[in-house]
Amino acid sequence: MKLRKLKRIVQAQASSDGAGVRIQRLAGRDLNRAMDPFLMIDEIRSEDGADYIGGFPSHPHRGFETITYMKQGLMRHKDHMGNEGLLAAGDVQWMTAARGVIHSEMPEQSEGLLHGFQLWLNLPAAEKMLPAAYADYASEQLPVFELGDGSAIKVIAGTYSPVSGNQRSAGPEVNAKPVASPIPQGTTEALYWDLQLAPGAQWQAAIPAGHNLAVYVYEGGAVEVEGMALATRQLGLYGDGEGLQLHAGGQGLSALIVAGKPLKEPIAQHGPFVMNSTEEIEQAIADYQAGRLV
């Protein structure tokens, strides 16, 4: 199995969104191409209610999917379709905005740790104007594969196929069967895993050839075989290959691993709208202003 090499490291940037919610963001045209089909990764993490209490009041989306994953705290979702859900620790919301969604995402707490992620996943041109869809998945619905020695991987999307040869975690993986998420895979065949490695642990996994691959470290760090290292709040972009190897540093490693089949289509974005042309963006704005988005 040809292991992928770390090609580039990108630092998350402090930003704000919604009603003043403080976030760490990885986005922009350059990353749109490098992470295709993923468009953006946002992390919310604060124990200060003033950093998140404003939440994300009612706002529109068109042309892509949002994946919200909570690690700690509570987030309430409501949308124009009548859907309402409360995300708690470990829960995932998968929303396909497609033709249009108007929704809000509001914290259900004013103090304590709020920690979560939202990823934007692009849709192919042929699916951008399909009807919107929404689903919540409770933490217990999403499989967790125990790697041993306190290491584990949560399979949010896609299938995790264990491979032999992982140091300090080889035992449970030998002859283990693939672990699949219950979330249906779309055209982009997205993988989304939450990996926890004990200090010094080494781990390998198969990644489909042709998928773009990115690793976002949210705690600890990873020491690369060839000397490059990933630290907290850094995104690693990887080259071609069939597998990924990570080696946790002295403080362990907590990381999101995302991969997907690139769409290789033009991207036109204006705020909450992601289409393929300027004309389609202008139409989305006009539809929203005229009340025709949904």
CATH topology of the largest domain: Jelly Rolls
- The class by helix and strand makeup works out as mainly beta
Percent helix:
under 10%
Shape: globular
Sheet bearing the most strands, described?
9 strands, antiparallel
Q: At CATH's second level, what is the architecture of the largest domain?
A: Sandwich
Measured between the Cα atoms of the first and last residue, the distance is: 46 Å
Would you kindly provide a written description of the structure presented here, covering whatever features stand out?
With 294 residues, the protein is mostly beta strands. It folds into 2 domains: 13-139 and 277-289, Jelly Rolls, CATH 2.60.120; 142-260, Jelly Rolls, CATH 2.60.120. The chain is built from 3 helices and 24 strands. The protein has helices at 29-35, 170-173, 278-289; strands spanning 6-11, 13-17, 21-26, 38-46, 56-61, 64-72, 75-79, 84-87, 92-96, 101-107, 114-122, 133-137, 144-148, 151-157, 159-160, 179-180, 191-197, 202-206, 212-223, 229-230, 234-238, 243-260, 268-270, 273-275. The strands form 5 sheets. Strands 1, 13, 14, 17, 18, 19, 20, 21 and 22 form a 9-stranded antiparallel β-sheet that branches. Strand 23 (268-270) and strand 24 form a beta hairpin. The protein is globular, with a radius of gyration of 19 Å. 40% of the residues are buried.
